[in-house]
Write a structure and sequence with these properties.
- With 468 residues, the chain is mainly beta.
- Among the domains are: 50 residues; 127 residues, Immunoglobulin-like, CATH 2.60.40.
- It contains two helices and 31 strands.
- The chain has a nine-stranded mixed β-sheet with strand order 28-31-26-25-22-21-27-30-29, with no helix packed on it. A seven-stranded mixed β-sheet has the order 5-13-3-2-16-19-18, with no helix packed on it. Strands 17-20-15-14-23-24 form a six-stranded mixed β-sheet, with no helix packed on it.
- Strand 14 and strand 15 form a beta hairpin.
- It is elongated and about 95 Å long.
Length: 468
């Protein structure tokens, strides 16, 4: 019994001393692979694989060069070589980074040296970093011309964000370990450039992915995936751990065009870069998402009615309203597209008479699946104008009314135009008369297609009976 207890105690002491003595640093120099998945909304998933040799038994491992905006609660470490033989007993995230300000904070209330230009020095007590304030020979000095020298490096300061694990390892020899975690400070967005032909019937469309990395880490030769979709995240009143702020100017960089492969993933879409890329810290990178030529487009002139013009029973005329200009595109394979398009801003250009490309408008598009349509508003027409006049408003009975509207459309362009008129109609309604054919695309909507000759005008008059 005594011998058994002695063996157990000896083993415990040996393990404890080993845990204090054995410490392994695993830096980016032994990194063999890194995979980065970037989501909409300032979130990235990092999988960092490194080849190292871990001692057996208890030991501490420092995993350096991780993102400064890492969420420590999401960190997961596993051995790819021996998944069951490596166990994590304790995990720490060291983010108290070494800086001149941090060094001075650690020495508040302690003795430091102030060196003069002639090499002599004074012993001083640092009272405050604001100023700074020193006590020298019983007197208080607000600032000092000397050079501040600290006697030693304080504890608990690290030069870069570091994950520290207390591990128990079963096998000796090299092994591959993978650390995965979520980090903030890295975002991506989609931008599109569309060039319209002279007839406004065809376009060349190019999509760009813009990645902005301010996470505090560089991901070298990384496998890159992008997730498009609205991923729900739990909202916390307080963060479980402090995330460091990384503020620096971003340097722009563009790479040669590559392909992104798209696949359905859960209720989202996943885009995988064909090849690898390096995403530097504090860098804005652009990659080609897609390119398509001769995409058919349909230009539409749309005159929308005011949503509340029925609310006045006195027939007050509406002010002249603008005619909106839109491009309608079907995201189909037959049209040269067919790739699920992540939401982003689309900018449209067209060549002028001299052949120079000019900016003609921009709009936001939402996540657009394959075979769905994209409506892009360019702006308001200059040479096609509309005017609405309420010709009559009559109360027929209780909650029963008749109203007549006249919409004048004038075309000052050199080509014939067709204007789509969209009119909101409230309540239970019935069209009594109309100068043009009408459609009912929705319960409270009237739709007209009104042709307008070049340098001419057209009038749409319709009368409806309303029951509120």
């Amino acid at each position: 019994m005594r011998r058994t207890m002695a063996v157990v105690l000896t083993l415990a002491v040996s393990l404890a001393s080993g845990a204090e003595a054995a410490q392994v640093a695993v830096g980016r120099d032994v990194q063999t692979d890194v995979m980065v998945t970037i989501y909409n909304g300032n979130l990235g998933l990092v999988k960092d694989v490194r080849q190292t040799r871990l001692p057996t038994g208890l030991h501490e491992t420092e995993f350096t060069d991780v993102a400064a905006q890492i969420d420590p609660t999401t960190v997961h470490l596993k051995s790819l070589t021996d998944p069951t033989g490596l166990r994590i007993l304790e995990q720490n995230y060291e983010y108290d980074l070494l800086s001149s300000g941090k060094l001075m904070e650690k020495y508040v209330g302690r003795m430091v040296r102030l060196y003069n230009t002639d090499g002599t020095y004074l012993e001083a007590k640092l009272l405050s970093t604001a100023g700074p304030v020193f006590e020298i020979n019983g007197q208080i000095h607000l600032g000092h011309n000397g050079r501040l020298v600290l006697p030693s490096l304080p504890e608990n300061l690290v030069s870069k964000p570091t994950l520290v694990w207390l591990l128990r390892n079963a096998i000796a020899g090299p092994q591959r370990v993978e650390a995965s975690y979520l980090t903030g400070g890295i975002t991506w967005k989609a931008d599109y450039v569309m060039v319209i032909n002279a007839a406004d019937t065809k376009s060349d469309v190019t999509g760009w992915v813009t990645i902005d990395n301010r996470s505090g880490a560089t991901y070298g030769n990384a496998s890159l995936k992008l997730v498009a979709g609205d991923v729900n995240r739990a909202v916390e009143g307080r963060r479980a751990a402090r995330l460091m702020d990384v503020a620096a100017k971003a340097a722009s960089n563009q790479e040669a065009a590559r392909d992104f492969k798209s696949e359905g993933f859960f209720e989202y879409h996943l885009y995988t870069l064909d090849g690898r890329t390096t995403i530097k810290d504090n860098q804005t990178k652009q990659l080609t998402l897609m390119a398509a030529a001769d995409v058919p487009v349909v230009k539409q002139l749309i005159y929308y009615g005011a949503q509340d013009y029925y609310r006045t029973s006195y027939g007050m005329p509406m002010s002249n309203q603008k005619v909106g200009v839109y491009f309608d595109i079907k995201n189909s394979k037959e049209n040269g597209l067919g790739l699920p398009l992540p939401k982003g801003k689309i900018r449209v250009y067209k060549a002028d008479a001299s052949g120079s490309q000019q900016f003609v408008g921009e709009d936001w598009i939402d996540h657009t699946p394959r075979d769905e349509r994209v409506m892009i508003k360019m702006g308001d027409a200059f040479d096609v104008v509309g005017e609405r006049t309420q010709k009559e408003w009559r109360k027929i009975a209780s909650n029963l009314y008749e109203v007549e509207w006249e919409i004048s459309l004038r075309n000052h362009k050199k080509n014939d135009q067709t204007v789509t008129v969209i009119e909101p109609v409230p309540g239970d309604w019935q069209v009594l008369s109309s100068t043009h054919a009408w459609e009912k695309p929705a319960a409270h909507t009237l739709k007209f297609q009104v042709p307008v000759m070049k340098d001419g005008a057209s009038k749409l008059t319709y009368r409806v009976r309303l029951r509120f």
